[in-house]
Amino acid sequence: MKKCTFCKYARHEEEAPIAYENKYVMAFIDEMPAGPIIGHLLVIPKKHFNTVDKIEDKYLFEIMKAIKKLAPAVIEVAGADGLNIIQNNGKAAGQAEPHVHFHLIPRKHGDGIWLNTNRRRPKPMEMLETAKAIGRELK
User: Fold this and answer.
1) Which candidate in 40, 101, 103, 109 is catalytic?
2) Quick one: average pLDDT of 16-41?
3) Which of 27, 30, 36, 67 is the most exposed place for a label (fewest CB within 10 A)?
């Protein structure tokens, strides 16, 4: 995609603060990080895919390998107590850039980031019926 900012980073047409790169993936510092501490990374495939359901398996595998490698390094450098690994899929879910990417967000206790808002407790029957409907959709 010629207009995609992340593709421009992957092709080195625009500069990004790169922390990791190989043939398939790139990880760089998010320019609008969540939370007060350093180290919020975005991990992207170097090939354009809009959403996670469109990504080729090889790229997804390479992203997961990179995340596994990067996670302890981010925690160490940030002096974090933990790490969120988040993938927003679609605008309604908060995906701001239409190029699949995973956030590695270093966390500290009491850092003010809240990801567990608007939660509810569905009834067991609703959970069972929903699980069955998703299972049917996979066939």
Assistant:
1) 101
2) 95
3) 36
